[in-house]
Amino acid sequence: MQHEPQPQPADELDAEAVRTWSSLAVAALGRAREDIDAINVYPVADADTGTNLYLTAESADRALTEALGTPPAGVSETTAVDPVAAAATASLPEAVRAYAHGALIGARGNSGTILAQLLRGVADVLGDEPGDRGAGRMLAEALTRAAEEAYRAVAHPVEGTMLTVAAAAARAGEAAGAAAGTAADVARAAYDGARAALADTPGQLAELGRAGVVDAGGCGLVAVLGALWQALSGQQPAAEAVRGRAVPVPRPPQPCEAEERGGPAYEVIYLLEAAEPAVAQLRERLDGLGDSLVVVGGDGLWNVHVHVDDPGAAVEAGVVAGRPYRIRITHFADERRRARGERVQRAVVAVVPGEGLAGLCGEAGATTVLARPGEVPDAAALVDAIRRAHAREVVLLPGGADQRAAAAAAADKARADGVRVAVIPTRSAVQGLAALAVHDPEGSFDEDVVAMTAAAGATRYGELAVAERQSFTSAGICQAGDVLGLIDGDVALIGSGLDETAQAVLERMLGSGGELVTLVLGPEVPDALAERLEAYVQHGHLAVDTVTYRGGRYSAPLLIGVE
pLDDT tens digit string along 466-477? Predict the structure, then answer.
């Protein structure tokens, strides 16, 4: 369970202030997400803006916590280190850059992508040396840069949206900064300016006026700015603005309204590694394919968001520009049906051994079941997940040999309920990721199952584990604390350290060839291990690509997939 930190009034910007802001923003968006979802009208009434903003802020907060270490006082129930002392070892530039990077890699939806760019604009200013500027002046400049960057990131900016609210906040913050206001003064002025602009959005955008609601993305931004002011002043923001009720809401938008108005059928989001000139060409290409185009980021890493009728063409454009990954394709009609409790045509249910993997598979559109160490989800848990997917057809990825019996029983139960279910015999999470990568919800069920089964079967899998006791293995006798290298489920070697064992396992797996290596790092494994393994692959196997993910809590120390 998490608790909100208790901010202390301060007229300074430092790493601890950023961390407190981040925690308060997650808490505020968590309270507001359902109300914001309910007033989501523009650009698509798909009732997910609050959720997207919350998930984006949560990703930013995770990255910041990893960069700074221990979370703020009161956030964790088991904190053994003084959080202020921990944050004091990090600089303001390190904190804001980590915060913005976390938002970039975890941005969800149109609103989350814009929020990520706003935070990048803030980081661009606060990441520089202050010079003669005070904290208030710097914050004012950061808010202005944020609004400018957000407008530039959107292909066709529309007033009455989150962009308008950001611009109003920046103007108000600039005025306070010019008057030699403190950082808390600037934050308060920006918050008040944003609230006033939010209340005016129904008169600026016809869709909002017809529904009698304020802009959902702008409402979320008000919550984020309120958290900033609270972090710097210790004062509580206005409750009605945080809950998404800045103006009376006569009725929530109806999901069918967007369908009646038409528009692209799919939302496509992916991270992209590419040079800036290639991204400029990508923008032009995607702008011709659809609308709601937002491309944010820089320094070789971008988050791409667009609404299109041809999702394949949008992904293909990313392949031309660079290397797209974490691809998420959402069919708006399916999301609306789920919101109404109706069944969609097809869904994927995946059992995953880690919270980070659960988030990754969720971004790919799967309904997930978390398998904790030593626990095997039973048939009832899998049946529940199948029902939550609200689909006529379900592809079930059990994730391990020990989960197949429960998967088969759950499939039989779901079939009795009228759901068509296929169980793909995945034995590792990396095989599930390979299957998800080729999942085609628009193709025939049989062809989709065959393609996913082939992708999983073509993926060799490895794992590193730490022996808990002395025991006999297929590679000999291990002692407690030894590192075990498993390949395709069997112990292939026994090592004393994580690094050398990982490289030995990878070397053996690549001995029979491969085109793509997938690395999934456990929660305690440093990024340096992935960097060393990536360097090994690059030097010894020039034609092999490498992708790295964080498995998160409950994940094994290291999972390796070779396709």
Answer: 888 898 988 899
